[in-house]
Design goal:
This protein is mainly α. It contains 10 helices and no strands. The longest helix is centred in the N-terminal third of the chain and has 23 residues.
């Protein structure tokens, strides 16, 4: 449970400003890995902080604020991915990209960047593998923290990490990049 000091902190407006400053960017990256759209990720993060503030009385203190915000972000991303508007936009994007052709020189340079290539491959993984890779490697959370956030056992997280690494390895071996 929260101590009276922590409880008063969580109800403090300035405390929430500090949370936004401290976790806003990493939550934005997390949301982007799920929805793959910057504007949608920004909307999700704004909604997460708004809901966290509105429902601050519901925070029981069984986890850290960081874990609490991560869980809220992931849940909100799932909601977005299930929404009709997301599915409609995604179909529209596919149709538009089908009729567009050609790459820019700038795009070619970016695509040759190793970090971009790895990031692109991570984003192409199934969601259950992508989320553990992002949380463990990019957000540098422990296996225990990832398990708490995703409401899975530690062994499930370890298995997903292993399978995700195997999928990435196979993909890069096929491309001759390993």
């Amino acid at each position: 449970m929260l101590s009276s000091k922590e409880s008063s902190d969580f109800n403090n407006h300035f405390f929430f400003e500090d949370l936004v400053d401290q976790y806003g960017e990493e939550l934005m990256r997390l949301a982007y890995t799920y929805v793959k759209n910057k504007q949608a990720a920004e909307d999700i993060i704004q909604d997460v902080f708004l809901r966290a503030y509105e429902k601050r009385e519901a925070f029981k203190g069984h986890s850290t604020y960081r874990t609490y915000l991560y869980r809220m972000t992931i849940n909100r991303c799932y909601d977005h991915l299930r929404s009709w508007s997301y599915k409609n936009v995604r179909i529209s994007d596919k149709i538009i990209s089908f009729f567009q052709s050609g790459n820019s020189t700038e795009g070619d340079v970016i695509s040759n960047d190793d970090r971009h290539t790895i990031g692109k491959e991570v984003l192409s993984l199934d969601l259950k593998y992508r989320e553990v890779i992002v949380l463990y490697y990019y957000e540098e959370l422990s296996i225990e923290e990832v398990a708490t956030i995703l409401a899975c056992s530690r062994n499930t997280i370890k298995t997903r990490l292993r399978r995700a690494r195997e999928q990435l390895k196979v993909h890069f071996e096929k491309r001759g990049e390993l």
